[in-house]
Specification:
Layout (H helix, E strand, L loop, with lengths): L6 H6 L20 H7 L5 H5 L2 H15 L4 E2 L6 H6 L4 E3 L3 E3 L7 H5 L4 H5 L3 H14 L5 E6 L1 H10 L7 H9 L1 H25 L3 E6 L7 H18 L5 E5 L6 H5 L5 E3 L6 H7 L5 E6 L8 H15 L3 E5 L9 H12 L4
Parallel strand pairs: 1-4, 4-5, 5-6, 6-7, 7-8, 8-9
Antiparallel strand pairs: 2-3
The structure holds coproporphyrinogen III.
Coproporphyrinogen III binds next to strand 3.
Length: 342
């Protein structure tokens, strides 16, 4: 597929590019007034996400409004547990809540997995196909899923948490059951992502949002092998691993077949470069809070960050953009990248 602007895919493959590409995690959503207007037509977030035409419209809004170099399909990582049979609610201004949680092997045995689970996610595949129509060859589209550990954390904990101590406890008390659940999530995620590729996703990003909650040893045992399985099963497209807080796991991530490694803002670029593979491209890692600064300061700090990465770099934030971020700050960030000269 040829795109009018394929900077993002060329950079992800490790090619030399004229300037680094830029997109923002969570670029689709509440920062845009046009998203909030569209979303008001739906009773809740889940109803919105399950309407492919609406999701596709939200996917394309930041492309039209901000001129980013990649789109990311509008969905959520929690659609996977739901497809496996564990329902969740998205509580306005609070976050996700699972009325029932996974406590033991018996609960795990009842979950659907693989293709049988992923077929319930046809609406996301349809949203990808619809998004491709609306993007109309302008830029590539990113598909995504949560990493097995992060999905596990929600399924066992039942919501966000300051400590994730319920989920982490299971790794000590019931390690075999934990592995069984991680494997079911992995098998489902692979089937789901295969469908995303078939629908037109050009690159896949895996969000391991709670990676930083594990010890280095636990990350090696309960996260890395499943991330490896996912990457090995999907050779057709380039892949990004974003493991938030996992500065301690960069060497391990550097050995996995992910072309791009996403970084949060706690990690100095040189520190990541020393530890990841020489073939790998780094993505990140502007502090999302820096977008509340003045446009001049954003511009200066963005250019400084690009200099520090020194190539093989996709510009992004170190985590998702906060919903109340001023659009002028986001624009200053994107424009600073586009006007960057070496
Ligand atoms: O633009 C994009 O990046 C695509 C959309 C996207 C959403 N969620 C939409 C969303 C993506 C990529 C996600 C991923 C996601 N969801 C992650 C991984 C990234 C990260 O932030 O670490 C996680 C952990 C979740 C789980 C989740 N979904 C939480 C904790 C919440 C509530 C907190 C919040 O941000 O409100 C959500 C809800 C959610 N997902 C919203 C959006 C736009 C807000 C709900 C709404 O608009 O009504």
């Amino acid at each position: 597929m040829n795109y009018q602007n394929d900077l993002f895919l060329r950079a992800a493959r490790g090619e030399q590019v004229e300037r680094p590409p830029v997109w923002l995690m969570r670029q689709a959503g509440r920062i845009l007034p046009q998203y909030r207007a569209l979303r008001a037509n739906f009773p809740d977030f889940k109803a919105f996400v399950k309407t492919p035409k609406a999701a596709a419209t939200a996917t394309v809004q930041p492309v039209d409004e901000l001129g980013v170099d990649a789109a990311i399909v509008f969905s959520d990582i929690l659609v996977v547990p739901e497809a496996m049979g564990l329902d969740y609610e998205m509580i306005e201004a609070k976050g996700p809540k699972f009325p029932k949680v996974i406590e033991n092997q018996g609960d795990i045995d009842q979950l659907l997995e693989g293709v049988a689970a992923a077929t319930h996610l046809e609406y996301v595949w349809d949203a990808i196909a619809e998004s491709k129509k609306l993007i109309d060859g302008r830029i590539p589209l990113i598909g995504f899923a949560g990493a097995p550990w992060t999905i596990f954390a929600y399924m066992v904990e039942g919501s966000g948490s300051k400590t994730f101590s319920v989920a982490r406890r299971m790794l000590y008390q019931q390690p075999e059951a934990a592995h069984a659940l991680l494997q079911k999530i992995t098998t489902t995620t692979i089937a789901y992502l295969k469908g995303q590729i078939a629908a037109g996703a050009d690159l896949l990003q895996i969000f391991d949002s709670w990676a930083g909650e594990l010890t280095p040893e636990q990350y090696r045992i309960f996260a890395i092998p499943y991330l490896q399985q996912i990457a090995d099963a999907l050779p057709e497209v380039p892949k990004t691993i974003f493991a938030k807080g996992a500065w301690f796991a960069l060497e391990d991530l550097g050995e996995l077949p992910y072309q791009v490694v996403g970084l949060d803002w706690n990690i100095p670029p040189a520190f990541a470069r020393e530890r990841t593979g020489s073939h790998q491209v780094l993505q990140g890692n502007f502090d999302p809070c820096n977008l509340y600064a003045s446009p001049a300061e954003i511009r200066h700090n963005t250019h400084e960050m690009i200099r520090q990465f020194g190539g093989k770099h996709i510009v992004n934030l170190g985590h998702g953009v906060y919903p109340d971020t001023p659009l002028d700050g986001v624009r200053a960030f994107v424009d600073a990248v586009k006007t960057y000269h070496k």
